[in-house]
Amino acid sequence: MAIVGASLIAYAVILWFNARRPTIKITDAWVAVIMDTVWVVASYVLIFVLPFSSGGKWAIALVAELVLAFAAAQWLGIRKIRGGA
User: Fold this and answer.
1) CA atoms within 13 A on the CB side of 33
2) Of 43, 48, 75, 84, which alpha carbon lies 20 to 30 A from 24's?
């Protein structure tokens, strides 16, 4: 769990630095979308594979849905930047 926590903190710092840039790199934005999508898929795999309590499964699912919303918003932002929206 410590490795996951440290990784998430590092990811948050990277996202923060990317968000503070005057111009957004599309590659960095795609990396964020992909990593968020991987988080969502891995969360649902864990829900179905590991014996979490009902409350634990709901907590994991709610976090996964929030991360999915961020991924969707990021994807829409990429489309807007590229002129597809």
Assistant:
1) 14
2) 43
